[in-house]
Amino acid sequence: MLLDFDDRVRASINLEAVFGALPTLADLVVEARTILAQLDSDVTLTLRAPGGLGARYTFGPKGIRYGGGASGPSLFFTSAGHLNAVVDGASQPIPVTGPRGFRFLTKVFTPLTELLSEYLQPDESRLSDPHFRETSTLLMLEVVAGALSVVANHDESGRFSAAHMPDGRIDMQIGEDRTYRFAVADSVMRRATVTSSAPTAVLRFADLDVAGDVLSGRENSLSCVSDGRISMSGLIPLIDNLNRILDRVGAYLGDHDQ
User: For residue 123, with 0-12 CB atoms within 10 Å meaning exposed, 13-18 middle and 19 or more buried, which class applies?
Assistant: First the structure.
């Protein structure tokens, strides 16, 4: 595995996967919905950095969705590195907005991102609360699912792994209740809708706790494979290379000093 990190890849992960967990935060956490209830209409936030990096999210009293559709403020970043520093809390973005936009940024967006951070980087003591632990794990899984395609398609190490993946559908299953599906075609991976069609390969975690412990680094994946808490089936090259990309995603998500 390469030891270097690409600022642009990490910026894309932040834009598409970390901020991409905000809709799930609004679905799962009452406090997030309370923050959104301050809004009387939809507000679209535009996030933009040089070189085509950008994303738009629309916030409304009933939830958050990816994409535009309303007016709202913009946050500009001078570079991918600047964007990453802002997400790390080490810098500030450049807002372009009026008074209403500033109120949205200070009263809605910033509290939501702080709340998301509490779940994605939890205090260990809070993980003893089963509800908090479950919510934290579900949000982490949403981030990982969003980051997988970014790394597979844009990171040098990720592209190498994706180039060795045959075309097919691979499911990441969490117990009996939750599945994340990815489609691979011509060495490009994307998140796909789960349908009744059979996957080509399956990486299965016994339950949400196992997935959370492995993805957070609290548990070793090899020991989980050995005792059956993680199982694999189907086309092995798909699973083998997905695991390599997962490792790379973990390295990006755990890297805050690059």
Answer: exposed
Q: What is the pLDDT of residues 49-74, one digit of tens each?
A: 999 999 999 999 999 999 999 999 99
Other CB atoms within 10 Å distance of the CB of residue 4: 8
Judge residue 34's burial from the number of C-beta atoms within 10 Å of its C-beta, 0-12 exposed, 13-18 middle, 19 or more buried. exposed
Burial class of 232 by CB neighbour count within 10 A (0 to 12, 13 to 18, 19+)? middle
Q: Which residues neighbour 257 within 8 Å (Cβ) at sequence distance 6 or greater?
A: none
Question: Is 8 in contact with 154 (CB distance < 8 Å)?
Answer: yes
Indicate whether this model's pTM tops 0.90. Answer: yes
- For residue 163, the 8-state DSSP code is H
CA 230 to chain centre: 21
Which pair of tokens denotes residue 113?
């991102």
List, for residues 192-231, the tens digit of each pLDDT value.
999 999 999 999 999 999 999 898 888 888 899 999 999 9
- Beta strands, E only, 87-135: 94-96
CB half-sphere exposure, 237, CA atoms < 13 A = 11
CB of 185 within 8 A of CB of 153? no
